[in-house]
Amino acid sequence: MCRIAHSLFVLFSFSAGACGWVETVSERLSVGDPDSAVGTDQTANTNPIADATDPSGNVVGDRPLTPGPVFFAVRNRHRPDIAGIVRLQDGKFERVIRGTVDDDTNFVRGSDGHAYVSVFSRIYALDGPNAFKPIATGFRTESFNVGLTGELWALKTQKFGQYLDGGWAFQPDSTVGPNLGSLRDIAQDRSGRLWMLCRKGLTVLDDGVWEVFDIEKHDELVLGLLDIDLARDGSMLVMTPYAVYRIKSPTEVSTLRIADADHHGNLAVQEMSGDDLLVTLKHALARVQPDGAITWYEPDTDFYGGHIRNSDVDGQDRIWLTSYAGVSVIGPGASRTSWPFGAVPELFGRPRGILVLGDGPTTLPTVGPAARGSLTGIAHYNDEPVRNSPVRICGYCDGTSTPGVFFDGMTDDSGRFRFDDVPLNKYNILVKSETKWREDTRYFIRPFLDEGKLHDTGIVVVR
Predict the structure, then answer these.
(1) Can you identify the CATH homologous superfamily of domain 27-43+371-461?
(2) Which of 328, 362, 345 is nearest to 48 (CA)?
(3) CA–CA separation, 390 vs 399, rounded Å?
(4) pLDDT over 90, % of the chain
(5) How far apart are CA 425 and CA 70, in angstroms?
(6) At the fourth CATH level, which superfamily is domain 59-356?
(7) How many Cα atoms are found within 13 Å in the side-chain-facing hemisphere of 321?
């Protein structure tokens, strides 16, 4: 899926007290093993990172400030009536396109100067004369882009197409070359050439002919291509799980590796001021200077929560990101702002994509009290209740780590657990059995909570 580069042209392209059977409940910011005591107790409506409003004034560097909105794609299968595309502007959140979004929802800055988003089989304009109206329908795309002269391209796994005269004209993936695997992203450079990123290779359409660009000639450790974008200097930025490549010409390709034992899993790359790059990983962000020096931004220190979903950079070099715990803004300077889940009704669900226009909002809303609900269920393992054992709910946890906010409690003699007055969120459930933390086997159907209500998830089978 195409990630958004901050460039002039973009391509075809977030302690409840003891109650019921719960003996102790604490909300904690933590990383590492669930048994560890790392972190500090927090109340759910207290932001662990200081709130801030933008103090930058009316100029950025030597140019006038150009305020712009932020758009969020909010998914909520439990409550599709409150899902959709949400805009932050003038200090207020507002839902501008209603209806749930999916994993393929993708934001794009067009080379025509306007912004777009794909939602299921429709592509909407987000500003300009057609704001919040569909400009193309009929194709549930995984990635799309707007060309230099306004042409609209989109792709999905095994085919790609151009939107012409109110309909899509498709071509199969074999058109771009043999044995390249599924299609992943499409881009256009300043000379008008189309670049198609495939799972196993990169190919370019030049003068009507598709030719494979042999990136492995420059780095034999290429492992899976993820994303391609046009940089400010006209080069192409290509991302893989472990490296970023800058292609200036067929013979001039530079390699940037930032993954290590503690930081891995590249998600996106964006340009910042100067020639700095922001590389977004699953659990951290890296600002990389041209000389290779890296500034790391870490969870629970620089942003709220652990697992990052998406990120973007505004014209003030502020980093905006969505995680499994909420939405955070890093900058300007040492400023940090976060909106945890439950604190912003319009973002209730799972914020997926994010897009910032211009220099972003001049004023950021402060964090209000989080809306809350309650959760109960009965834990089972090997067809038996898990009695008098630790239980944990968290926005994102996998049995080995628990980044962000989580709650701890105990099951009773029948295996039942209950958490009262916790922030509205989508929770994973972990139960400790035979000295091991075990996941809810229905982790992909994580329960949502409703404000002021008790949600009974029934029997929770852990593995």
Answers:
(1) Immunoglobulins (2.60.40.10)
(2) 328
(3) 13
(4) 31
(5) 22
(6) YVTN repeat-like/Quinoprotein amine dehydrogenase (2.130.10.10)
(7) 34
